Structures are given as C-alpha cells and as structure tokens.
Amino acid sequence: MFKNLKRVPAVLLLCLLPALGLAGCAGHAGSAEPSGPADNMGIVTDVQYLRTDEFNADREFEKLFWLSSAEALRSYTEETCPELARLANRYDEAFFAENDLLVVVVSESSGSNRLEVTGVKVTPSQTEGKQYVLQPEIQRLRAENGTADLAGWHILIGIPKDHGAAVSELAEPVFTEVIVKG
Fold first, then answer.
1. Would you tell me how many other CB atoms lie within 10 Å of the CB of residue 152?
2. How many CB atoms are closer than 10 A to CB 130?
3. Where exactly are the structural domains of the chain?
4. What is the distance between the alpha carbons of residues 103 and 62, in angstroms, rounded to a whole number?
C-alpha cells in the first residue's frame, strides 16, 4: 500500500507545475498596470514604412523632422525623396488638418532587416514655448542571416496637431533590437 505513495508527490508535482505556470501568466496578463512598448502608441494616428534609396553607412539614424502640411510633404518629395509620391494621396489636406507627420529616416546595413515603431514617448519639455518632447521608439528586427544590400527607410508617423510640431520638440529615436532566426 505504501509503495504507491512514493509516486504521489511526483504525480502532484507534475500536475501542479503547469497549473502554477498558467496562473502566473494569467495573473501577469490580467494586470491592470500597463507595460511594454505598446503603451506609448496612444498618440500615434498612423505609421507607414517606405524603403527608399537614401542610405548612409556611417549612421543608422539619419534624420528626424516634422512635416506639417501636404505642401511641405510635396516639397520634400520633389526635392529629396521621390519615392514618397506613392503615399501622397494618403497624406492630403484633410490628414494635415488634424495631424502632423513625424518623419524618421533610417539606414540599415541589410535589406533583410525590418523596423517597427513600438511607440512615441511623450515627456514634458523644458524648452520655452514647447510642451512636449517626443521620442520615437523603434524595434529593429535584424535578420540572423542578413543580405549584403543596404537599405534606407522613411518611417512616417502621424501625430495629432495638439502634440505636433507647434508644441513639441524631438529627441533622437531609441532603437531596440531583436534577432530574427531563419
């Protein structure tokens, strides 16, 4: 009769471990406090990624600037980045009546890498006349076996006018990196 009792703790342990693990995950997932990069997506109204020819091998981050009107976008497109013409219909006067575009130009050492905006951090500004500092947060999905081609990316992030160029200053993006296997 006592021979089988030796197995009881092992069986209980095997049964309880998954249940304890699930309870721990459910408790974390159900937490009322926000966590992670998605929390900072609250002010973002739109994100578009456009691969372009612009590339600088010396720096991963090229430029960060505002476009506050359809005319400014057309001008930038004509003078600097003709590839953006594909998105001109998306960003018309109606879009700019309510939003600005925060533009991030990034250089990648491999065309296999992908970028994902995970948020825009908003902090109080110390600059007179500005209310906010906006800092894009970008996750780089780096291919484990990347290709040798170089890639430039224009990332266009829609920001409501009440957080836009008139009231905000910009801080260089924060990059995090994830290696993608395969």
1. 19
2. 16
3. 37-180
4. 10
What is the C-alpha separation between 170 and 67, in angstroms, rounded? 13
Q: Residue 48 has what DSSP assignment? A: E
Contact 119, 37 (CB under 8 A): yes
Q: Model's pTM, two decimal places?
A: 0.74
Residue 95 in 3-state DSSP? helix
pLDDT, tens digit (0-9, with 9 covering 90-100), for 123-180: 999 999 999 999 999 999 998 888 888 888 999 999 999 999 999 999 999 999 999 9
What's the one-letter identity of residue 135? Q
Cα–Cα distance measured from residue 96 to residue 68, given in angstroms and rounded to the nearest whole number: 6
What's the rounded Cα separation, in Å, for the pair 132 and 155?
21
